[in-house]
Amino acid sequence: MRTVFLAAVIALLVCVIDAKSRKSGDDGAEASVSAGDQAELETERRRNPCYRKKCQRGEVCVLDEHRKSKCVCSPDCGVREVRQERLLVCSNKNMTYLSECHLDQDHCLCRTNDRKCTSPGSTKILLEYYGACKELTACTENEMKQFPYRMRQWLFIIMEEMARRAAIGEYQDLLKAAAKDETRAYAVIWKFCDLDTDPQDRQVSRRELLYTIRALKAMEHCLVPFLDKCDANSDREITLLEWGKCLELEDGKITDKCHAIKKHRKTD
Fold it and tell me: Is 204 within the bounds of a domain?
């Protein structure tokens, strides 16, 4: 059973990394299309004030009686109000929503103290993971002690799998070094550099960790408590030093290799 679980976790993490790569490519394609239709969009913007209006998450722009633009909570998510398993999402309040749109809508309603808010008193409702909320058991003290070792092994296996798929050719040297090191320090550093994306400041924010948390929280109940523990000073940022210590690396092995990795990636 543990082998099946480990395989599922590894597959999910590999899919997460693949999805991040595809997203970067998709963004470029969208930018190209937008450039080609720029003239038409500019005309439409001048005609409709909402094109200039930037609304927050869960909001849409509408025009009042004077054709002035304003943001309001989204009244309609454009999907049937019925439960479809493939669309369900779980919030940080452990509440299941019909879709990501419904979650964002409720976030707006609660932020503006609307009576339709389903979680009165909540000012920030976030997407925790995809799928219906699951009852997560508490992470035991013994499980937490074992987690750093398990995480290091996962990261090494993920490196191997990504290399097999030819998705991280630029990390072949790191992979060879990681294979010789029983502590899997190189795999730990690789994953930190992979997470440190926006911005690349040698700190991993909760925002940068979202892909991992969303994909794995429902399967690994120790993950979030572990990440909380890594953030030693509780500033919602995990530095390279905090990451290394949290994963129980020796001080001499917590070295910044991100610049070399990113540089190598650009030349491949």
Answer: yes
127 in helix, strand or coil? strand
Does 199 fall in a domain?
yes
Domain harbouring 262, CATH code: 1.10.238.10
**Could you read off the pLDDT of 204-230 as tens digits, one per residue?**
887 777 677 766 776 678 888 888 888
Side-chain-side CA neighbours of 210 within 13 Å: the count stands at: 12
Residue with tokens 């109940």: 221
Beta carbons within 10 angstroms of residue 194's beta carbon: 23
HSE-up (13 A, CA, CB side) for residue 119: 21
What Rg do the C-alpha atoms of the chain give, in angstroms? 22
Give the residue numbers spanning the domain of 112: 53-130
Verdict on whether the full-model pTM lies above 0.85: no
What is the pLDDT confidence band of residue 144, given thresholds at 50, 70 and 90?
Answer: very high
**100 in any annotated domain:** yes
The whole-angstrom separation of Cα 118 and Cα 107 is: 9
- The answer to whether position 46 is within a domain reads no
Same domain, 214 and 192: yes
pLDDT single digits (tens) 38-96: 777 677 666 788 887 899 999 999 998 888 899 999 998 876 667 888 889 888 888 99
> CA 125 from chain center: how many Å?
15
